[in-house]
Amino acid sequence: MEEKKMFTEKESLELISQMIQMTKENLERGSGNVFLIYGYAAVVLSVVVYAAVYITGRPLWNALWFLMFIPAIVMKVLQVRKKPSVVTHMDKMLAHTWCIVGSLFGLTVVAMLLIGMVIGSCNFGLMLPLCLLYAGIGTSITGLIVRVPALVYSPLVAFLVAVYMLMVLTNGGRVAPEWNLYFGFSFLLMMVIPGHLLNKKAAAYAC
């Protein structure tokens, strides 16, 4: 009986390892890499928004950040076109995690608009640090699920940048144009570099 129990525990561990491996492979497939899509979109937009605000002196150009919702649409299309052959429980956990993160982005915008109408002021500058926190939490959770340390710890810089921005805003400061570059740099470390590491691993698996 004890031998059978040990064998069952061993089988369970092997099954968990297989699920993690399948989830990694599903996550690591080339152009569908969510980290590269969101990461590069954020990096490019950060430079564009910074340049527009710096040159014109008009903070209105910060509204270009709403284009970050486009990658979500792109990812949805890619997921419909190319579904993984095997969907594990961990795949579903990842999907639900990022669904919650995406919902937080949208709900924050709606909440800020509604509260802004009540108090007569709406500072969308808060979106920069809040987005860094949301994306950082999602990335770390993903890293924990698939056991990739680079994903777990890469959001640390984003967290520090977000805290810095929140402290400035809560102490009477204002959003500076260079914050856009800080945001882009945070996404470079948090998503672009880990995204390429995932693709490199995917290529190794293919060989």
Q: Could you characterize the architecture of this molecule?
A:
The chain is mostly helical and 207 residues long. The protein has one domain. It has 8 helices and no strands. Helix 4 (89-119) packs antiparallel against helix 5 (127-146) and helix 7 packs antiparallel against helix 8 (179-206). The model has no long low-confidence stretch (mean pLDDT 81).
Number of helical segments with 4 or more residues: 8
Give the number of DSSP strands.
0
Rg over CA atoms, rounded to whole Å, is 20 Å
Distance between the termini: 42 Å
Portion in helices: over 70%
Derived from helix and strand composition plus strand pairing, the structural class reads mainly alpha
Model regions low in confidence, pLDDT < 50 over at least 5 residues: none
What composes the largest sheet? Answer: none
Organism: Phocaeicola coprocola
Keywords: Membrane, Transmembrane, Transmembrane helix
Protein name: Transmembrane protein
Transmembrane segments: 34-54, 60-78, 98-120, 126-146, 151-169, 181-198
